[in-house]
Amino acid sequence: MKALSSRLVVLVASVSLFFAATGCATVFKSKTTPVTLGASFPGSEVLVDGVSAGKAPVTLALSNKTDHTVTYRTESGEKGCTIHSKASMGWIVADIFLTVLVGLIVDVATKNANNLEPQGC
Question: Which domain holds residue 68?
Protein backbone atom coordinates (compact mmCIF):
# COMPACT_ATOMS: atom_id res chain seq x y z
CA MET A 1 0.00 0.00 0.00
CA LYS A 2 2.86 2.37 0.80
CA ALA A 3 4.49 1.68 -2.60
CA LEU A 4 1.22 2.53 -4.35
CA SER A 5 0.83 5.85 -2.52
CA SER A 6 4.46 6.74 -3.28
CA ARG A 7 3.89 6.04 -6.96
CA LEU A 8 0.76 8.17 -6.90
CA VAL A 9 2.65 11.06 -5.32
CA VAL A 10 5.38 10.78 -7.97
CA LEU A 11 2.77 10.67 -10.75
CA VAL A 12 0.91 13.72 -9.44
CA ALA A 13 4.18 15.61 -8.94
CA SER A 14 5.33 14.73 -12.46
CA VAL A 15 2.08 15.86 -14.07
CA SER A 16 2.12 19.08 -12.02
CA LEU A 17 5.72 19.80 -13.03
CA PHE A 18 4.84 19.17 -16.69
CA PHE A 19 2.05 21.76 -16.60
CA ALA A 20 4.13 24.23 -14.60
CA ALA A 21 7.07 23.92 -17.01
CA THR A 22 5.00 24.35 -20.15
CA GLY A 23 2.58 27.07 -21.05
CA CYS A 24 -1.16 26.62 -21.08
CA ALA A 25 -1.38 27.44 -24.79
CA THR A 26 1.55 25.13 -25.58
CA VAL A 27 -0.38 22.21 -24.08
CA PHE A 28 -4.01 22.97 -24.93
CA LYS A 29 -4.27 25.36 -27.89
CA SER A 30 -4.37 24.49 -31.57
CA LYS A 31 -1.32 25.68 -33.50
CA THR A 32 -3.42 26.70 -36.52
CA THR A 33 -6.61 28.67 -37.18
CA PRO A 34 -9.05 27.90 -40.00
CA VAL A 35 -9.45 31.07 -42.08
CA THR A 36 -11.79 31.51 -45.06
CA LEU A 37 -10.29 33.78 -47.69
CA GLY A 38 -11.66 35.44 -50.78
CA ALA A 39 -15.40 35.69 -50.10
CA SER A 40 -15.24 39.21 -51.58
CA PHE A 41 -13.28 38.00 -54.63
CA PRO A 42 -14.93 34.73 -55.76
CA GLY A 43 -13.02 32.89 -58.46
CA SER A 44 -9.80 34.84 -57.91
CA GLU A 45 -6.53 33.05 -57.31
CA VAL A 46 -5.51 33.19 -53.64
CA LEU A 47 -1.84 33.35 -52.67
CA VAL A 48 -0.75 33.06 -49.03
CA ASP A 49 2.81 34.15 -48.31
CA GLY A 50 3.50 34.02 -52.05
CA VAL A 51 2.28 30.43 -52.49
CA SER A 52 -0.88 29.57 -54.45
CA ALA A 53 -3.64 28.33 -52.14
CA GLY A 54 -6.40 27.77 -54.70
CA LYS A 55 -9.44 29.65 -56.00
CA ALA A 56 -11.53 31.89 -53.76
CA PRO A 57 -13.32 31.31 -51.55
CA VAL A 58 -10.96 28.87 -49.83
CA THR A 59 -10.61 27.80 -46.19
CA LEU A 60 -7.05 27.18 -44.97
CA ALA A 61 -5.48 26.20 -41.65
CA LEU A 62 -2.92 28.96 -41.10
CA SER A 63 -0.20 28.94 -38.45
CA ASN A 64 -0.90 31.16 -35.44
CA LYS A 65 2.81 31.90 -34.99
CA THR A 66 3.39 34.33 -37.87
CA ASP A 67 1.72 37.08 -39.88
CA HIS A 68 0.48 36.02 -43.32
CA THR A 69 0.41 38.06 -46.52
CA VAL A 70 -2.64 37.30 -48.66
CA THR A 71 -2.86 38.29 -52.33
CA TYR A 72 -5.93 37.99 -54.55
CA ARG A 73 -5.29 37.85 -58.30
CA THR A 74 -8.37 39.05 -60.12
CA GLU A 75 -9.02 40.02 -63.73
CA SER A 76 -8.63 43.66 -62.73
CA GLY A 77 -5.29 43.18 -60.94
CA GLU A 78 -3.95 42.17 -57.56
CA LYS A 79 -5.26 43.10 -54.14
CA GLY A 80 -3.49 42.27 -50.91
CA CYS A 81 -3.83 42.29 -47.16
CA THR A 82 -2.08 40.99 -44.06
CA ILE A 83 -3.40 38.65 -41.38
CA HIS A 84 -1.71 39.56 -38.11
CA SER A 85 -0.60 37.16 -35.39
CA LYS A 86 -0.89 38.65 -31.89
CA ALA A 87 -0.58 37.33 -28.35
CA SER A 88 -3.89 36.48 -26.71
CA MET A 89 -4.56 38.06 -23.30
CA GLY A 90 -6.60 35.02 -22.25
CA TRP A 91 -3.64 32.67 -22.54
CA ILE A 92 -1.32 35.19 -20.90
CA VAL A 93 -3.62 35.54 -17.87
CA ALA A 94 -3.98 31.74 -17.62
CA ASP A 95 -0.19 31.37 -17.71
CA ILE A 96 0.30 33.94 -14.96
CA PHE A 97 -2.17 32.31 -12.59
CA LEU A 98 -1.71 28.62 -13.44
CA THR A 99 1.99 28.25 -14.21
CA VAL A 100 3.57 30.92 -12.00
CA LEU A 101 5.02 32.80 -15.01
CA VAL A 102 7.11 29.86 -16.32
CA GLY A 103 4.36 29.00 -18.80
CA LEU A 104 4.12 32.63 -19.87
CA ILE A 105 7.77 32.59 -20.86
CA VAL A 106 7.30 29.34 -22.79
CA ASP A 107 4.12 30.47 -24.57
CA VAL A 108 5.49 33.90 -25.53
CA ALA A 109 8.87 32.52 -26.67
CA THR A 110 7.24 29.81 -28.82
CA LYS A 111 4.40 32.13 -29.94
CA ASN A 112 1.90 29.42 -28.97
CA ALA A 113 -0.25 32.06 -27.21
CA ASN A 114 -0.81 33.90 -30.50
CA ASN A 115 -4.12 34.17 -32.36
CA LEU A 116 -4.70 35.27 -35.93
CA GLU A 117 -6.70 38.41 -36.68
CA PRO A 118 -8.03 37.94 -40.24
CA GLN A 119 -10.52 40.85 -40.16
CA GLY A 120 -10.60 42.72 -43.41
CA CYS A 121 -8.76 40.06 -45.34
Answer: 2-117
